[in-house]
Design goal:
CATH topology: MetI-like fold
Strand content: under 5%
CATH superfamily: MetI-like
Order of helices and strands: HHHHHHHHHHHH
Length: 301
C-alpha cells in the first residue's frame, strides 16, 4: 500500500507532462496559430533589440525631411524606408521603438491584472460566503462601466504617463481573470482530490495554491493571452487621445494621431503605425485561439 501511495504523485506528474506535450504538439500542428506566434515573437525581439534594429534615433528631427515619402515613392530614400513624419523623424525607427511601449504595457497590465484576478478568484470560489459576495459585487460594478470610458476617466484624474496608464488599465482588467478563476474554482473545489486534501486536514491556502490553481492555469493563461491584444488596443486608443505616453516617446497610437492632419498628402505617417497595431493584435488573437484550442480541454473532442 505504501508503494502505491509513493508512486501516485510521480504517475500524476508523468501524466500531466504527457498531456502538456500532446497539447504542445497540437498547437504546433496548427500552422496559422504557429505562424502568428512567430510574428508575435518577432515583434518582441524587435522591441527588445530596438537600439540595434532601428536605423535612426526615433526622436531625431530633421525639418529638411519633413513628410518625406517612403523609399519606393518619388522623393524617398532607402535610408528612410517608410518615410518621415511632420518633424522629419524616421517612421520605421519610431515604429520599432513604439513596439516597446505597446508590448511592455500589454505584458505589464496582463501580468499584474492576472495575478490580482487569480488571488481574488480563488478566494471567491473557494471560501464562498461573504468573501464571494463582496468580490462578485465589485466585479459586477466594474463590468457595468465601458472599459475605454473608465480608463479615460482615470487617466484624466491621474494625468498621462507610463505608470498611470498601466494602473488605469489594471483597475478594471483584473475582473476578467477573476471571473474565469472563480468559475473554474467552483467547479474544481468539489472534485475528489480536493476533498481528499481537505479530509487530510490541509489548510485552505495549501488547497487553493497547490491543489486547485495548477489544474485551472490553462484557461487562465489562454484568456490572459487574448486580453493582451485588447490591452494593446486600449493603450493605442489612449495615446491617440493624448492621454497615454507623452512625446517624444514613440507610441503607435500617438503616431496615428500625429498623421491625421496629413492623411491625404502624407498617408504613410498614420498608415504604417496603424498596420503595426493591426499585425500585432491580429497575430496575438490568432495565436491565442490556437492556444485555446490546444490547451483548453473543453475544446477537445
Amino acid at each position: 500500500m505504501a508503494a502505491v501511495d509513493t508512486d501516485t504523485p510521480r504517475d500524476a506528474a508523468t501524466a500531466q507532462e504527457s498531456i502538456f506535450r500532446r497539447n504542445l504538439h497540437s498547437f504546433a500542428a496548427n500552422r496559422l496559430a504557429l505562424g502568428s506566434a512567430i510574428v508575435v515573437l518577432l515583434f518582441i525581439l524587435m522591441a527588445v533589440f530596438a537600439p540595434l534594429v532601428a536605423p535612426h534615433d526615433p526622436a531625431e528631427t530633421d525639418l529638411f525631411r519633413r513628410l518625406q515619402p517612403p523609399a519606393w515613392m518619388p522623393g524617398g530614400e532607402w535610408s528612410y524606408l517608410l518615410g518621415c513624419d511632420a518633424l522629419g523623424r524616421d517612421i520605421l525607427s519610431r515604429i520599432i521603438y513604439g513596439a516597446r511601449i505597446s508590448i511592455f504595457i500589454g505584458a505589464a497590465v496582463v501580468l499584474v491584472a492576472t495575478t490580482i484576478g487569480i488571488i481574488a478568484g480563488l478566494a471567491a470560489g473557494y471560501l464562498r460566503g461573504w468573501v464571494d459576495t463582496v468580490i462578485s459585487r465589485v466585479v459586477d460594478i466594474l463590468l457595468g462601466f465601458p472599459y475605454l470610458i473608465f480608463a479615460i476617466g482615470l487617466m484624466a484624474m491621474m494625468g498621462p504617463g507610463l505608470i498611470n496608464i498601466i494602473l488605469a488599465l489594471v483597475y478594471k482588467e483584473w475582473v476578467i481573470p477573476c471571473r474565469v478563476v472563480r468559475g473554474e474554482t467552483l467547479a474544481t473545489r468539489e472534485l475528489e482530490y480536493v476533498e481528499a486534501a481537505r479530509a487530510l486536514g490541509a489548510p485552505g491556502r495549501h488547497i487553493m495554491l497547490r491543489e486547485i490553481l495548477p489544474n485551472i492555469l490553462s484557461p487562465v493563461i489562454v484568456v490572459s493571452t487574448i486580453r493582451m491584444a485588447h490591452v494593446i488596443i486600449l493603450e493605442a486608443s489612449l495615446s491617440f487621445l493624448g492621454l497615454g505616453v507623452q512625446p517624444p516617446t514613440a507610441s503607435w497610437g500617438a503616431m496615428v494621431a500625429d498623421g491625421r492632419a496629413f492623411i491625404l498628402q502624407a498617408w504613410w505617417v498614420s498608415t504604417f503605425p496603424g498596420v503595426a497595431i493591426l499585425l500585432l493584435v491580429l497575430a496575438i488573437n490568432v495565436a491565442s485561439q490556437g492556444l485555446r484550442d490546444a490547451f483548453d480541454p473543453r475544446f477537445h473532442e
